[in-house]
Amino acid sequence: MLLLLRASRLSALAAIAVIGHLPQGSSAQTFSPDPGPAIEVNQSQLSALDRFARGQVRDGQVGNISYGLWQRGALLQSGSYGPVQPQGTSQASDETIYQIYSMTKPVTAVGMLILYERGYFDIDDPITTVLPEFSDIEVVADYEEDGQLFTYLPPNAPTFRQLLSHTVGFAYQSKDRSEVDRRYIALDVANAPTGDALVSRVASVPLMRTPGSEWHYSLASDLQGVVIERLTGETLQTFLKREVFDRLAMHDTGFFVPDEHQSRVSSIATLEHGKLTHERPEDLSQSIQEEKYFEGGHGLVSTVADYHRFLEMLRRGGRTGPIQILRPESVELMTANAIQYKGTAAPQRGYGSQSGLGYGFGVSVVENPEVAALSAPKGTHYWYGALGTWFWVDPLNEIVFVGMIQTRAPVGPDMLAATMERVNGPIAAQNRATRSSR
Which residue, 179, 133, 157, is CA-closest to 7? Predict the structure, then answer.
């Protein structure tokens, strides 16, 4: 048993910021391609990408798939295969509605950065200025087999930078991982009925690690959603709709689906013993979804066309035409590796110097393509959703890719790696192209 550790703690102010509505956003913006040289991706690569997507449906790996590849704002290739719902007559398209789960996280991070730019908080302020429930949170040092915890006070309160980069030390209610996860499960943290209840339950359990010491995928994005709601006095849905979705003409993105569009919602398939089984589409109506609070870590629905608009805004440095969502500096902050190392770094839950990856605010960042085994240049950022949606943005080659499927079982091969390689070629070739462009 470890001795009970104690360290001095930076006292945190617990005053909640003044609540108020933000000014209305500008009108929606349509996209036009950037002027630039001829497109480098050749027809052979585009054909390989489409054959791969079509083959996933033909071979029974997924129920349907929809994808799009853009370069400098121009659509290079898109494809949609399979029925929206197994008994329906509609075929998938770039307007099929998918549950995007953790692809909600980058959107919530953008919401946080909007408030950061408007002076609601400083990136290195303690989160206790908005979430005072964490003022006295401790860190697990050790625990006994009977679950008894030994904790210590961290030297500093968690910051918004750490909350955005998943380095606070929270867990994610994952089975058979840690004593903190098990406590989350006992408290049913994932099913907290309100944002305030979520904060209360999470704050009653010590942190897994000292804030800032380690990356760990966690409930941090859900807590970001609570921060946005407390600072604005609005629901996360209302805030994101006005500040992001309406301004980017993302009309099919939100936390619920209007009744007239329910038929456009993709079914969910599960691959078991080589056979796909389909679930009935979930009820995503507004009345059902408003029975619970809107969570910043998951819950959004979107389409390939809509999510491309969001990513294209990021690729262009936060602006599309006259519509500016974020400043370029904020986009750079979001998409740069936020995990800091001292000396020789050890792997941090898969996101250390030995993984070839870093993590920004809501996105993974490719640091070393060869080590990461991804055919994409350094600086490419990406993320997934639990039901198989995925994306990547390649700033070097000005490429945006969005892919969407709905399946509860892992699909082989890895969709991100497979589609990157069909667009960029083998990893070694991509690395040579990256080095020659520097």
Answer: 157
